[in-house]
Amino acid sequence: GSLIETIENPLRQGIQFYKTNIVKCVPLNTEKGKIRYPFEHEMEKCFPNFEYEIEVLSPTVVFLLGKQTASFVIKKLGVR
């Protein structure tokens, strides 16, 4: 959170940010009761919502929260 705030704060004027880990639910590790990274099948299920929100909101910057999320989106969009 603080790293993203450090990036956002100087740019807040005129730039719309969108932060996501793709899934809308809070994925929990049931054994430890802590938040975990979303699984690929969870991101796959939620990806159409992500695409819709990006289309509607038209953010200037999208923060993909976590390596798994970023790798998933890059793969889905065919970015190298």
**Principal-axes shape call:** globular
Low-confidence stretches: none
Q: What is the terminal separation in angstroms?
A: 26 Å
- Mean residue pLDDT: 83
Count the strands? 4
Decide which structural class fits the backbone: alpha+beta
Radius of gyration: 14 Å
User: What's the story with the biggest beta sheet?
Assistant: 2 strands, parallel
- What share of residues are in beta strands? 15-25%
Strand order of the largest sheet: 1-4
Helix content: 40-55%
- The secondary-structure element order is HEEEHEH
Put simply, the count of helices is 3
Please explain how this structure is put together.
This protein is of the alpha+beta class. Helices cover 45% and strands 15% of the residues. The protein has three helices and four strands, in the order H-E-E-E-H-E-H. A hairpin with a 4-residue loop joins strand 2 and strand 3.
Short overview:
The protein is of the alpha+beta class and about 80 residues long. The chain is about 45% helix and about 15% strand.
